[in-house]
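Example (one chain per record):
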Amino acid sequence: SGEALQSAAAAKGSDGPTLLRTALAQLQLESPQPEAALKNAREACSSFRQQNSPEGEGTALLAVSAAHLGSDAIAALQAGTQALRTFKELGHSKGQAAAIHAIAKANVAKHNIDDGLFKAGEALKISRHIGDRAREVAVLSTVVEAHLAVRSAKQALATAQDAATVAKHLGDKTLQADAL
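Predicted structure:
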């Protein structure tokens, strides 16, 4: 979520209240406030659209997708797809990787494991190409979740070990612990 906030902060033409709404939505995603997160993410998305800030809008769409994950996987998939279109138009590789990852997570949530793994593979390829190691760990964690959903414990363990190795290279103990 820190990456999304940095991306929102970098969005040209953004005002303080819109950035604050996006930041608040991101924080609420990490707490038991999914309805509030969704509301703030939607408001931020609308504000960024009005300000003609596609990067900010794409970032807010990622927050909308994340907010929908626990309750409406189809809406999460739609928001992720819309974010992907936005980031593709901008030629924003990091945003594209994040959006494809959001699509992968939505597919896993819908129990479309093959689609989720395929999209995760795409996100992983972009993340590695641009050197976004934190995104790589996040995507690998989604792959672990997908493997566990279909009871592929061996593949899940191997992927979790890969994620832990990448996190170790980043020097991030929290990511390392999360990967395992």
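Caption: The chain has a mean pLDDT of 84.
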